[in-house]
Design brief:
By secondary structure, the chain is of the alpha/beta class. The chain contains six helices and seven strands; from the N terminus they run αααβαβββαβαββ. Helix 5 links the parallel strand 4 and strand 5 (163-172). The model is unreliable at 1-12 (pLDDT under 50).
Amino acid sequence: MSDSEDDNIPQLSAHTLAALQEFYDEQKQQTGLCVVGEEKYNVGVIEENWQLSQFWYSPETALRLAEEAIAAAGKGGRIACVSAPSVYQKLRELRGNSISVCLLEYDRRFAIYGEEFIFYDYHHPLDLPDHLTAHSFDLVIADPPYLSSECLQKTAETIKHLTQGRVLLCTGAVMEEEAARLLGVRMCKFIPKHSWTLANEFRCYVNYDSGLDGDM
């Protein structure tokens, strides 16, 4: 390139460059791409998007649910997390080589988790990749994004397709009867907590003997 061509390239001030860098840093933070290594599995490292009805569990709840999932799946078990990214993140932190886990999630920011991320839209409950064969998971843990009959019904289709039997469902207390009808689950004593206080009471439901029914 000639000197005259160089003269035609717009030059940015130091202030503008700093502002531009700040913008890029914010974009990286929002997409989760600014984190590397095991840090990308920290609960909350990808911020909640309330427009997608995302409300992450508190670290204590994420840990309790992950430990329950590992116990329920057993050594070498397979766990599917449906719309439950904070449980997936905690499982990745805990699992070692004892289990395998995948995340079915609508938010493509979670694609940073590579092959363990599977794009999932509850409106199309059985639109799943071929390698997610029917009844191939020891446990499915699901947290439908919306407290609606349609969302629970469609998510239940996915759950029943994937699980060999065991289900751990997290949703509002108002969905108790419908959850029991669709999945044969019962409410646990354990009460999950979120990073933010929600207006709706949330509960856990299972269809097997669970440690979540122990003393709290």
